[in-house]
Write a structure and sequence with these properties.
By secondary structure, the protein is α/β, with parallel strands linked by helices. Among the domains are: 3-157, Rossmann fold (3-Layer(aba) Sandwich), CATH 3.40.50; 310-431, no CATH class. It has 19 helices and 7 strands. The chain has helices at 25-38, 64-72, 85-97, 129-149, 155-163, 168-182, 186-199, 204-216, 220-233, 238-254, 264-273, 278-290, 294-307, 312-326, 333-351, 360-371, 375-387, 393-407, 415-428, and strands spanning 6-10, 15-18, 21-24, 49-51, 75-79, 102-107, 122-124. A 5-stranded parallel β-sheet has the order 4-1-5-6-7. Strands 2-3 form a two-stranded antiparallel ribbon. It starts with 5 loop residues before the first strand and ends with a helix.
Length: 431
């Protein structure tokens, strides 16, 4: 078997439930995954060859053949829709076996439990036919770019790479930090990760994780210091460049030392290192928007929307910028459809226990309801989002975003009431 040409597909077999909906995964493999994989060119010539095991190996003995596919295949595509235990077992084995060559997808309505919400899975739709066609194009593009770049995409390998020379006490501290994060005790996790970073100061992953936690706590200056330190120890750390740019921009507008950099250069470096990082592209759009460079901002958000296959954050910002320019709400048929699709995904996120990506999932869903003319839904979700905020900068960010519509004289029922309620939330929350 020439595994250098194979893309092993990790997915459920037969008909399985995704939420409350029965889904025929065999049809998805035949109509979406297999043709999309076959269309992906290999850098050395030829195309990928799709392979999927024919039976559920977990009904009996685990097959050696399956492990060989996981271990040796040039690429692996995993569909985590339905939260199938077998899929996660195989995906975990793949991430442990290979540093690169794995892409994760999920159906737009698939729930994401809290324990795995850090996994980035690109959304796709398999019906009707035009959506299946878009899904095939997306998958082919992701596989093609991933084969060309060959970037580290395994969170397990990333952690192990950073910790190979770490003393044993570091592993214990990391476990304690993870336990604190699961218990929603970020201050305790920050304290533990500080100890770990002091014990092993040349570990970029420790500094990056510490920076993310301090960012969530609104400790922007300290977060920036951690991201800068991570980059000093690993110059091509794309995610650290992205977060550095976000922190630089936040401090620039807060006029807080060491303010001075807008974050544009750092975010540009992140996009250069990983052109598919829609978070970096969307954050770059935010930098341009705050500087009044609205045309460049709209372009960055458009690129982020394309790369992410319609992620609500860049989509909603692109709509606001287009509406601001035209002086009225700009929703063509494509945007309306994307909003409906985004609404389904966000509805699942806010129903998670705890809610996924709060308060932003609430705010994004509220904005969609605003554009759909559901004023009560907009205000109720806005209130829920405010209750999930821990610092005033969170509702302020949403308020300032909505003000772009007001400044463009865009008239939408409920908009001014929503901004007033956000002002009240800002006053009630700590900085």
């Amino acid at each position: 078997m020439d595994y250098s040409k194979i893309c092993f597909v990790i997915m459920p077999f037969g008909t399985k439930a995704v939420g409350a909906k029965p889904v025929n995964f065999d049809s998805i493999y035949d109509g979406v995954f297999a043709p999309a994989i076959s269309a992906a060119p290999l850098p050395e010539g030829g195309n990928l060859v799709p392979k999927r095991t024919d039976k559920d190996f977990f009904s009996g003995l685990i097959s050696q053949e399956m492990f060989q596919y996981i271990e040796y295949s040039r690429f692996a595509l995993a569909d985590i829709s339905g939260l199938n235990a077998n899929v996660f077992y195989e995906l975990g084995a793949r991430h442990r076996a290979r540093e690169s060559g794995t892409a994760i997808f999920r159906q737009v309505e698939a729930p994401i439990p809290f324990d795995i919400n850090q996994i980035k899975a690109l959304p796709y739709e398999y019906e009707p036919d035009d959506k299946a066609k878009q899904a095939r194009e997306l998958i082919t593009r992701v596989l093609t770019e991933s084969l060309q770049q060959n970037r580290l995409d395994s969170p397990i390998q990333a952690a192990l790479r950073a910790q190979r020379t770490s003393p044993q006490q570091i592993d214990g501290l990391l476990q304690k930090a993870e336990d604190a994060i699961r218990n929603q005790d970020r201050p305790a996790a920050i304290s533990i990760l500080r100890q770990a970073a002091q014990a092993q100061p040349d570990n970029p992953l420790l500094h990056f994780k510490l920076g993310l936690l301090m960012k969530d706590e609104g400790q922007w200056t300290d977060a920036l210091g951690s991201f800068v330190t991570a980059i000093q120890h690993q110059a091509d750390y794309a995610e650290a460049w992205r977060e550095r740019g976000i922190a630089e921009n936040k401090l620039y507008w807060k006029k807080t030392p060491p303010a001075g950099l807008t974050g544009e250069d750092s975010l540009g470096k992140a996009v250069e290192l990983n052109p598919r990082d829609f978070d970096a592209l969307a954050s770059l759009g935010g930098v341009f928007k705050r500087q009044g460079r609205l045309s460049e901002s709209a372009d960055a958000y458009r690129r982020a929307t394309e790369v992410s296959n319609g992620h609500p954050y860049p989509l909603l910002n692109e709509i606001k910028l287009r509406s601001h320019k035209e002086g009225k709400l700009m929703l063509d048929a494509t945007r309306k459809f994307q909003l409906v699709r985004a609404e389904r995904s966000l509805r699942v996120q806010v129903q998670n226990a705890p809610p996924y990506n709060a308060p932003w999932s609430y705010f994004d869903l509220a904005e969609i309801r605003l554009y759909q003319g559901d004023t009560d839904g907009f205000l109720n979700l806005l209130a829920e989002g405010a209750l999930n905020c821990s610092h005033s900068w969170q509702p302020k960010t949403f308020r300032d975003s909505l003000k772009l519509l007001v400044e463009g004289n865009v008239q939408i029922p409920g908009l001014n009431d929503g901004i007033q309620r956000l002002d009240e939330a800002i006053q009630a929350l700590p900085d």
